Amino acid sequence: MSDRDIVLGKVRRALAVDSGDVGRRAITIARLEGTPRGVIPARGQLPHEEQVALFIKMAEKVSSSVVRVGETGEVPRAVAEYLRKHNLPATLRIGDDPLFADMPWGETQIEMSHGPSDGNDAVGLSHAVGGVAETGTLVLTSGPDNPTTINFLPETHVVVIKATEIAGDYESAFDALRERYGRNSLPRTVNFVTGPSRSGDIEQTILLGAHGPRRLHIVVVG
Amino acid sequence: MDITSPTFKQNAREALADRQLQRALGHVRAGFIDKRAKAVAELPEFDALRDAARDIKNHTLAHLDLYLEAYEDRLRAAGGEVHYAETAASARDIILSICQRIDARTVTKGKSMIAEEIGLNEFFEEHGIAPVETDLGEYIIQLRHEAPSHIIAPAVHLTKDQVEASFREAHTSLPPDRDLSEPTELLNEARSVLRQRFMAADVGITGANFLVAETGTSVIVTNEGNGDLTQILPRVHIVIASIEKITPTLNDVGQIIRLLSRSATGQDISVYTTFSTGPRRPEDPDGPEEYHVIILDNGRTEMLGSEFKEALRCIRCGACMNHCPIYQAIGGHAYGWVYPGPIGAVLTPEFIGVDQAGNLPNASTFCGRCEAVCPMRIPLPNLMRHWREREFERHLSPAAARYGLGFWAFFAKRPRLYQWATRWAMRVLGNRAIGKGRYASLPLAGGWTKYRDFPAPEGRTFQEMWAAKRVAR
Amino acid sequence: MAEGTERRPKVALFVTCLVDLFRPTIGFAAVKLLEEAGCDVEVPAAQTCCGQPAYNSGDRRDTRAIAKKVIAAFEPYDYIVAPSGSCSGMLKVHYPGLFSDDPAWRSRAEAFSAKVHELISFLTDVRGMKSVAARFAGTVTYHDACAGLRELGIHDQPRRLLKSVDGLTLVDLKDDNVCCGFGGTFCVKYPDISNAIVQKKADLIAATGAGTLLAGDLGCLMNMAGKLQRDNQPVAVRHVAEVLADMTDTPPIGEAREA
Questions:
Q1: For A40-49, what is each residue's pLDDT tens digit?
Q2: Is B355 helix (H, G, I), strand (E, B) or coil?
Q3: Nearest CA in chain C to B381
Q4: B129-144 per-position pLDDT tens digit
């Protein structure tokens, strides 16, 4: 008997159930298909413009810096200004996201390099597929458009997010992922990112830049 | 890891006398308790979420076999491999064989209490593989060859001076004049040392806060990003998680996520909540090539069929121990195994036997603060009491306590005899303290009078006086 | 409550073993307060203890035996009131669960438990008492004993009544809701840990500058008094009922009667 058979057998014996019980099976199928929402905090249930304002406020609360621009064309200049202001090199590691390809990077002096990060990049740029106003959280997904290593290896992480993609709560973010990737399926990695990396492990003092980025800068578009 | 639960009383005595430990424990209050209280106060739906989370877990446990099967199906569909492990030994062997197959030399690890539970690090070392803890707290205690003393803040028992000393001893290329006196410097040092290890690792091992049946996904919750670097850089990502981590849907994860960080550190959510599903896809430029999930039993199925099953709702937030007056007094190592505090008092007897761990559920005042703050509404004092019942039935309590209790109970069941006996006892006890009002020492009460005076009784019992008043009327 | 227009409720006082043995004054204070609140008080003779020592030692059998006696002696009354959060909690919250495999006793226990109240919360929540006619000159601080607080929700009620006491100043105790380290047999089974906990408590009590410490549980009070006195702290310790009933002639806990 495999460990699998043993363990599942013990579970069934502990619960005093039969694997053939169709009633139980129907219940679990219903939950997996229906994905009930549960208790949603009122905090993020706002008109959209207020959700965006809340997103910005909550992101700043956890030490992200946030700037808002009117349209995607303004992003390169906004990013260049941020790098200048913080004495950071004018370099960016990015993926193949078409959103970036359409931006006027030529208006800046920034050197772009493409592909996953190998740890030698000072600054990475990603496009978040969604955001959650409730806690100022960014939703990033793996793939050639936005390689996951860009989210973690560079010391500074800049993330672009469209205001229209900011939702009120996690459940709405999950719905958006289901729509994008199909039911019961997710890409290799989905990162919910809420502020720069930190640790409280030394005498409970909170310090930024534990292993992931020390700085998280968010550019909200629209 | 060495189990020292049988010497709990001695451990506690040493902990109480350990000045550095006591200083470090002083930070628990502001660091955890006040922050949690603030975060909870800012979320009006917190208690409703606790009810919802408890119900989700209860539902899941009642259908655990079916959700496990659904999880496996989705995980395989995403290209991942599932391995069940009935015992700790089985889990270790499976992990070792995966590592040996690819000739792994270095393994980075995100924080995992399950890995502690199965003694993975020692096992790796015995087999010539170097495990590197990457969570800063775990890294620090690994340098010191210590066990974690808290389930989310493993180095909470250390002062920064102790951390500095450990770094200097271990990081031999550190120039002596490099200033490490402040936590920022210590953090930077750890960051650069560990960054090299992340890049060099062959295998990355993480735990999982949740295993999601809907999508075949494992979820980890960190603030540092170490769990992420552990899993995206190496060729192989291994997840080790116990069966009760199964959660039906992503939405269910959302419910519990709202409770987890608030209860643990007072944050609304941890910096990184990462959902990992299978190995890299053909179009992915980064990510592991192999993804394995070890699903561990190691005693959970026993609990599932017992009066302790509610403890399976635990999400390992640490709130119970943060608020426990006993934990605050003695820290985590005194409990002697992997899980300290109130949850440790319930789990440890289950996993290592009540004969070894019997002290843990007894060393509680049942003040109830743990249950009051538990996000999953686990009735921890009741569960500790069940252990005391098991010990009583099996005659494991010390003989003196058993006889003392039996003696008392004999009288307590016989009111008239009790009243007669207590009348005389209180007369004596009261008279001998006339003029003082208390006893600085008292035979049979050494445990009390070692540290406190013992207030003398008034001398007459209430029953005696009440009866006299009624006769007088 | 208008007296004479409705029957005065019959309240059975559950004295508690510690009050019975160590400090009858508290029992008499409870009687006085209950009578002031318009109740007729009786004290069933067949009572010894609520059974907590057996219960918390894992001896369910003896606990059940004691519980049956308590239920039988007290169930004829309108209310059962005890001057202790932990004993009331035992009777109200834990008794029914002792009989989960005995439906007849279970329903008797549930009916009984529904009528159980801790003393102070009974006065305020059931009898509607808003103030007391008592006088106590001095600064007082109040500790929330754990069972009363967490099992029965007792927090505002004693403070409300204390504020109505003429001459009394109430000061907050830091960490007033943190355990004092008594825990019944805990304090003698794990004396070193218990001492560490009660030491913190005693230091915080002394830091309030209050002349008197009050609480609603005698076990906790004896624990804290014993520590304060060992530390030579000039804090008098009493049960809150003594102050509310204006019965503070008895020396405080652990103090001798003056010659």
A1: 999 999 999 9
A2: helix
A3: C56
A4: 999 999 888 888 888 9
Neighbour-count burial for B97-132, b at 16+ CB within 10 Å, e otherwise: ebbeeeebebbbbbbbbbbbbbbbbebbeeeebebb
Residues of A in contact with B76 (CB under 8 A): none
Which residues 453-472 of B are in CB contact (within 8 Å) with C? 453-458, 460-463, 465-467
Average pLDDT of every residue of chain B: 93
Among the partner residues A15, A186, A212, nearest to B225 by beta-carbon distance: A212
ipTM: 0.97
Test B287 with A148 for CB contact under 8 angstroms. yes
Structure token digits, residue B169? 């001893």
Residue B73 in contact with partner chain A when CB distance is under 8 A: no
Q: Which CATH number fits domain A42-221: 3.30.420.10, 3.40.50.10420, 3.40.630.30, 2.40.150.20?
A: 3.40.50.10420
- Looking at domain B43-301, what is its CATH homologous superfamily? NagB/RpiA/CoA transferase-like (3.40.50.10420)
Q: What are the domain boundaries of chain A?
A: 1-34, 42-221
| DSSP character at residue C3 | B
pLDDT over threshold 70, residue B250: yes
User: CA-CA distance, C256 to B186, in Å (whole number)?
Assistant: 57
User: What was the pLDDT predicted at C259?
Assistant: 47
Query: What residues are paired with A221 via a beta bridge?
Result: A69, A162
Chain B, 391 to 420: residues with Cβ < 8 Å from chain C are 391-393, 397, 401, 405, 408-409, 411-415, 418-419
What is the DSSP annotation of B356-424?
Answer: HHTHHHHS-----HHHHH-TT---HHHHHHHHHHHHHHTT-S-HHHHHHHHHHHHHHT-HHHHHHHHHH
In the stretch 83-112 of chain B, residues with CB closer than 8 A to chain A read 83-86, 90
Please report which confidence band the pLDDT of residue B183 belongs to, taking 50, 70 and 90 as the band edges. Answer: confident
For B256-294, the pLDDT digits (tens) are 999 999 999 999 999 999 999 999 999 999 999 999 999
Domains of chain C by start residue, with CATH: 10-124 (no CATH), 130-244 (3.40.50)
User: CA nearest B358: which of B341, B369, B346, B367?
Assistant: B346
Q: Categorise residue A87: left if φ over 0, alpha if ψ from -120 to 50, beta otherwise.
A: left
Q: How many CB atoms lie within 10 A of CB B427?
A: 15
Cβ neighbour number for residue C114 with a 10 Å cutoff: 12
Q: How much is the pTM?
A: 0.95
Query: C216 to each of A168, C146, C220, how far by Cα in Å?
Result: 47, 10, 8
pLDDT higher at C244 or C4: C244
Contact C173, C143 (CB under 8 A): yes
Question: What integer pLDDT is reported at residue C258 of this predicted model?
Answer: 63
Which token pair is A62? 């956890």
Nearest to residue B198, comparing CAs of B118, B264, B105, B132?
A: B132
Residue A208 CA to residue B225 CA, distance in Å, equals 11
Query: Is C223 within 8 Å of chain B by CB?
Result: yes
- For B37-129, strand residue ranges (E) read 81-85, 106-109
User: What pLDDT, on a 0 to 100 scale, did the predictor assign at position B399?
Assistant: 83
Statement: residue C1 has pLDDT above 80: no
Contact indicator for B338, B114 with CB cutoff of 8 Å = no
Distance separating alpha carbons of residues B184 and C128, to the nearest angstrom = 58
Return the beta strands (E) in chain A as ranges: 65-69, 91-94, 111-114, 123-127, 130-132, 137-141, 156-162, 166-167, 189-193, 198-202, 205-208, 215-221
For residue A163, the 8-state DSSP code is G
Q: With an 8 Å Cβ cutoff, are B369 and C193 in contact?
A: no
Q: Which residues of B touch C66 (CB under 8 A)?
A: 409, 412-413
Indicate the pairing of strand A123-127 with strand A156-162: parallel
